[in-house]
Design goal:
Helices cover 83% and strands 0% of the residues. By secondary structure, the protein is mainly α.
């Protein structure tokens, strides 16, 4: 039983390659979106403190972070689909 329990815990990349690649794409998209929003939030927070305003730049830059993150994620998704269509059509000439 000791041998069997050890083998179950090993991740077989060849068997789960598609799943692992999709998971990495989803994680990359989530981190990209969160990174854009958080970065822009802190830029807005810094500008509000520097200029003595009350949240206007946090609001503006957070909205810009959401828009910028969405555009970046859209580009990443289209690049992934273009790469997959090129590799699937490449062998069918």
């Amino acid at each position: 039983m000791g041998r069997l329990a050890g083998k179950e815990m090993v991740f077989n990349y060849k068997k789960n390659r598609v799943w692992a690649e999709n998971l990495s794409i989803v994680m990359q998209i989530g981190l990209t979106m969160a990174g854009c929003i958080v970065f822009c939030f802190f830029v807005g927070l810094y500008l509000d403190k520097w200029l003595g305003t009350r949240g206007i730049f946090v609001t503006i830059f957070t909205i810009l972070g959401v828009i910028g993150g969405a555009v970046t994620v859209y580009r990443q998704i289209t690049d992934v689909f273009e790469d997959k269509s090129e590799t699937s059509n490449h062998g069918k000439h």
